[in-house]
Design brief:
single chain; mainly alpha
């Protein structure tokens, strides 16, 4: 099973968020405001978000952008 850092990078790029800024903007549209540097920590595996609601919003964003295409991918991301 892949870890959170690997999956976050995979789905962020698949969703065509070329920069952390683009992802931050989309997350802010859903009520979550983070400094872009946190996404770098997530992608490097230095930090992992623990807020379940935040994780569900990220999954929703990735589903909306067709980066996560099925329940298996969503569950793998949440389990990581």
């Amino acid at each position: 099973m892949k870890n959170f850092a690997q999956l976050f990078k995979k789905y962020r790029l698949r969703a065509e968020f070329g920069t952390y800024s683009e992802f931050a903007t989309k997350l802010a549209e859903n009520g979550y405001y983070y400094d872009e540097s946190i996404f770098s920590h997530w992608q490097k595996g230095n930090r992992i978000p623990s807020n379940r609601q935040l994780l569900l919003i990220i999954v929703e964003i990735f589903v909306e952008k067709k980066a996560i295409n099925n329940h298996t991918e969503a569950n793998e991301f949440l389990a990581s």
